[in-house]
């Protein structure tokens, strides 16, 4: 009975931590490179923006209506996990670029917020091989209004999402973008095929830290692959 009690208490603590405080997520794609890589395991704080019917981590949505309990607004530049608006089930991770009342637009591969270009300084140029073959790649440091600064990655002008119309962000919504600007389906793509604008109630939490990381190829059922693909340099990295 003592063992059973210990197990029950441990499970209850884990349940509370997952529902109210922290939730782990795995990065499934390259859309947030160079800051998050496929195979990164991140920890998301559930309390950062309060709680909504979509942020419990339970297989059912809590009956909280349209409001958030202990709600707080995200800041521009936060990396956020949210439920995809078109199905309210799929978890996505992007960066908050546009706040309620903002006008967001891409012009010639440059992000504009409220009519002004965002500061963007090239850090490095290189070449990346992906499913499209070797491509020239640029990493730049982007600084948003308010001073939040982080690296972005793109493959030069001329991409499908490098020139867009003006997106006006209404009250209660946020405009999300991936840091890998030419390899991200985000708020630049209409909700019917992409993300569209994200309602406040769909926010799950703020991505805080990379707990650990394996490159693609690691398998839970093949322990040898853990050591061959582990990326210790990314362990416990706090996210910008």
Automatic annotation (TrEMBL):
Q: How does it sit in the membrane?
A: Single-pass type II membrane protein
User: Which is one Pfam family of this protein?
Assistant: Peptidase_S26
Coiled coil located at which positions?
Answer: none
Q: Which stretch is the leader sequence?
A: none
| E.C. code | 3.4.21.89
Q: Which GO terms describe its molecular function?
A: signal peptidase activity
* CDD domains found in the cross-reference section: S26_SPase_I
Keywords of this entry: Hydrolase, Protease
Where does this one sit in the cell? Answer: Membrane
Report domain Peptidase S26 positions: 2-210
Q: Which reaction does it catalyse?
A: Cleavage of hydrophobic, N-terminal signal or leader sequences from secreted and periplasmic proteins
Protein family? Belongs to the peptidase S26 family.
Output the NCBIfam families linked to this UniProt entry: sigpep_I_bact
What protein am I looking at?
A: Signal peptidase I
Provide the species name.
Brevundimonas aurifodinae
């Amino acid at each position: 009975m003592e063992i059973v009690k210990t197990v029950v208490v441990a499970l209850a603590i884990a349940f509370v931590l997952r529902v109210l405080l922290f939730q782990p997520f795995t990065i499934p794609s390259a859309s947030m490179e160079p800051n998050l890589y496929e195979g990164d395991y991140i920890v998301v704080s559930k309390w950062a923006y309060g709680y909504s019917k979509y942020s419990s981590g339970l297989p059912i949505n809590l009956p909280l209506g349209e409001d958030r309990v202990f709600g707080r607004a995200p800041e521009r530049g936060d990396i956020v996990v949210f439920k995809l608006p078109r199905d309210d089930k799929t978890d996505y991770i992007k960066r908050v670029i546009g706040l309620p009342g903002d006008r967001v637009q891409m012009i010639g591969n440059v992000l504009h917020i409220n009519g002004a270009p965002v500061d963007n300084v090239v850090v490095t140029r290189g070449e990346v091989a992906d499913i499209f073959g070797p491509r020239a790649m640029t990493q730049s440091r982007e600084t948003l209004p308010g001073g939040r600064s982080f690296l972005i990655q793109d493959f030069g002008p001329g991409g499908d999402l490098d020139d867009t119309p003006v997106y006006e962000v209404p009250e209660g919504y946020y405009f999300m973008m991936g840091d890998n600007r030419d390899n991200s389906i985000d708020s630049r793509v209409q909700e019917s095929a992409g993300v569209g604008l994200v309602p406040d109630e769909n926010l799950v939490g703020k991505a805080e830290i990379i707990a650990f990381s394996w490159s693609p190829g690691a398998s839970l059922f093949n322990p040898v692959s853990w050591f061959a693909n582990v990326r210790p340099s990314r362990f416990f990295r706090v996210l910008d």
